Protein: DUF1361 domain-containing protein
Organism: Hymenobacter sublimis
Amino acid sequence: MSMSVATLSAPQLRQRLNLMLVLGASLVLSVVLITFRVFLTHKISFVFLLWNLFLALIPFGLSTMLGLTAGRLKARVLLPVGAVWLLFFPNAPYILTDLFHLEPRPGVPYWYDLALILSCAWNGLMLAYASLTDMQLLVTRRLGRSAGWAFATLALLLSSFGVYLGRYLRFNSWDILTNPITLFYDIISRILHPTMHRGTWGVTLLYGVFLLLGYATVRLLGQHREPEEL
């Protein structure tokens, strides 16, 4: 069976369009806030957040592409694209940790920088959840509901580990190609000697549980249906 573009139903098309419109508007808000800050201060203090948002869009773009395919994807398509998706997925929730950069700075109200960073963090989180929803649905279609939730849980825990690698060890997704030996060594060291790296597993578990509870909440809210008009 070849991979083809799916014909979505009218409600599915409307839901997808609405999601992309809302996410797009939210991303535009973040870009406007960052751009205005540059013009206001003549400094590029938070321009790096634009790059972080771009990286967060990559897993969402990949999952959207997979989600728009008809039928069951062949393993030779799903597995490599899914691996690339998982590699870039931590970049989305990673933006939550950019709150570390929040501190009073001259020339801009503290509340403005708070709103700016929260806007970017929110977009990263929502892109992560939207992307994971697509991927979980693909797994559920192939292996069932339990496997779908097991996949989502594992993906969020791995993403939390990826957030640790990025925030504290300063690795990024490209290091798997440009610096694989050091990356592999640091990962294996933490797996083989967990008691020597308690911070690693503290961040991984705490952020993983937080992300999982947030994801479950969003999924439950998504299942809510507005009452029909009388």
Observations:
- The CA atoms of residues 80 and 86 lie 10 Å apart.
- Residues 10-222 form one domain.
